Amino acid sequence: MTATIAKGLEGVLFTESKLTFINGTEGILTHLGIPIQEWAEKSTFEELSFALLHGKLPTSEELAKFDAELRANREVPAELLRAIASYPKGAHPMQALRTAVSHLGLLDSQAEDTSAEGRYAIGVRMIAQFSTIIAAIARAQDGQDVVAPRADLTHAGNFLYMLKGHEPTPEEARLFDIALILHADHGMNASTFTAIATASTLSDMYSSITSAIGALKGPLHGGANEAVMDMLDEIGTVENAVSYITHKLDNKEKIMGVGHRVYKYFDPRSRVLREYAAFVSEKQGKSHYYQILETIEKEIVERLGGKGIYPNVDFYSGVVYSDLGIKKSYFTPIFGLARISGWVASVIEYTDNNRLLRPDAVYTGAKDQHYVEIAQR
To answer: Quick check: 232 and 292 in contact, CB under 8 A?
Structure first.
């Protein structure tokens, strides 16, 4: 049999989805056909999560009920909080998140329910509890007391409250809400595909999400925005930006936050975050961060735009997260905090018409061989 190998599964279609559409050539991203720019401007993370799970925009009554369900499920078992407090200091935050979510499954009597209703119920709880888990990990690693969730705050506002120990301003809560919206789902990325692959075996939701976290941990998927902040600190000043980028390009070195597997034009999410990065950089007296990014973008577009290489969503998100008081090491867990909605929705959508994922590989090894006794080798 002859076959064409699609390295990295590029261009391979394995399922249908009504959730997210991406046109990388034109820089288009939509959820349920609605542009990401409109979601960011007009919606909330709670509403987008409902839309992804149900495949439709909610009525005001449906949204209020869903929001109340999220708020009611923010608490996590005390046993899990004690375990998080015992994790080794300096543990990788994504290792801690992966372990905590797996542990949460052990404590859930419904964990093995793989019915459509069971997956949905567990998924909603996980969307609510991810923020509590991540905030608890961050505070425990810093030697601080864990802050219990508050039911009177929005999903974004409650996370910032649990993380920092004081209530965020409405401006901060809304800014973080927008960041969550922009990262909630992005088609068949590596972590979403991993979650689906696990779910296709009829494994449980906790196993699927734990698998996704493991995929997100890899620097080729999550973590690029942390590397962008490292790059900004390395460059230091606007005056150094062009020579830094020129050196990188001349030596064929990767520039973090630039280029995307799908987008061959501007990532539409980066266009939204660009505006907010400019605002927060000026507000916090670090406008040089934005000026460096702006200089890099100009250089990249001039030199690489013709090859379809542009800044992606990670390019500006680090500046926004830093302004919100989030440490670089927690940028990837924050990615997971947003993407949990997309993971859960995609698992539910795929398993509604499930088929075990079982790809093949072209064998290139030896043939017609026979076992050689060890004394004769």
So the answer is: yes
Quick check: 284 and 244 in contact, CB under 8 A?
no
Q: Model confidence at 283, in pLDDT bands (50, 70, 90)?
A: confident
Please check whether residues 124 and 233 belong to one and the same domain.
Answer: no
How far, CA to CA in Å, does 285 sit from each of 248, 289, 308? Answer: 28, 9, 33
| pLDDT of amino acid 361 | 87
Q: Within a domain: residue 370? A: no
**Strand 34-35 versus strand 20-23 pairing type:** unpaired
Check the CA dihedral 360-364-366-371 and report its sign. Answer: negative
Lowest mean pLDDT among 27-36, 67-76, 324-333: 324-333
With the CA atoms of 211, 213, 218 and 219 taken in that order, what torsion angle do they form, in degrees rounded to the nearest 10?
160
What is the rounded CA–CA span in Å between residue 124 and residue 155? 13
Q: Which of 264-268, 277-281, 331-335 is least confident?
A: 277-281
Domain that holds residue 53: 20-219+330-351
Q: Which residues are catalytically annotated?
A: 260, 314
Question: What is the rounded distance in angstroms from the CA atom of residue 147 to the CA atom of residue 69?
Answer: 20
Same domain, 337 and 319: no
Q: What gap in Å lies between CA 149 and CA 292, rounded to an integer?
A: 37
Considering the domain architecture, whether residues 130 and 162 belong to the same structural domain is answered as yes
207 vs 199: CA distance, rounded Å? 8
Sign for the CA dihedral angle at 259, 213, 179, 288 comes to negative
pLDDT of residue 174: 95
Sole residue written with tokens 């049999």: 1
Enter the DSSP assignment of 258.
B
Residue 260 is given by DSSP the state -
At residue 365, the 3 state secondary structure works out as: coil
Q: What is the 3-state secondary structure (H, E, C) of 174-191?
A: HHHHHHHHHHCCCCCCHH
Residue type, 261: R
Question: Whole-number mean pLDDT of the chain?
Answer: 93
The secondary structure of the chain in percent helix, strand, coil, rounded to multiples of 5, reads 60, 5, 35
The reported pLDDT for the residue numbered 2 is: 60
